[in-house]
Specification:
By secondary structure, this protein is an all-alpha fold. The protein has a single domain, classed as Uncharacterised protein PF10982, DUF2789 (Arc Repressor Mutant, subunit A, Orthogonal Bundle), CATH 1.10.10.1130. 61% of the residues lie in helices and 0% in strands. The protein is built from five helices and no strands. The radius of gyration is 13 Å and the shape is globular. The model has no long low-confidence stretch (mean pLDDT 89). InterPro entries: DUF2789, DUF2789_sf.
């Protein structure tokens, strides 16, 4: 795997299993309500939360795209409910 940021590498950086199946399972089982910020989710540990906040605050181009993608994926159910 290359070191170019990707969703798989983001999961790896967060210390999570990063196979496509593992990512899909994580996203499906960790859906957040619409008003929940990604970095405030209760399932992150301290270092995971700090990683997310650091790269969001720095607006680090290489990571912010993938953190935003993760944020959108973890809010899929909330977004569907708002549209209904």
């Amino acid at each position: 795997m290359s070191n170019k940021p990707s969703l798989e590498l983001l999961f790896s950086q967060l210390g999570l299993a990063n196979s496509p199946a593992a990512i899909e399972l994580f996203i499906r089982t960790h859906q957040l309500p619409a008003n929940q910020n990604l970095h405030d989710a209760p399932f992150w540990n301290k270092s995971q939360r700090e990683f997310l906040i650091r790269y969001l605050v720095e607006d680090a181009d290489e990571w912010v795209i993938w953190i935003d993608e993760l944020n959108q994926q973890l809010h899929l159910n909330a977004n569907k409910l708002q549209m209904a």
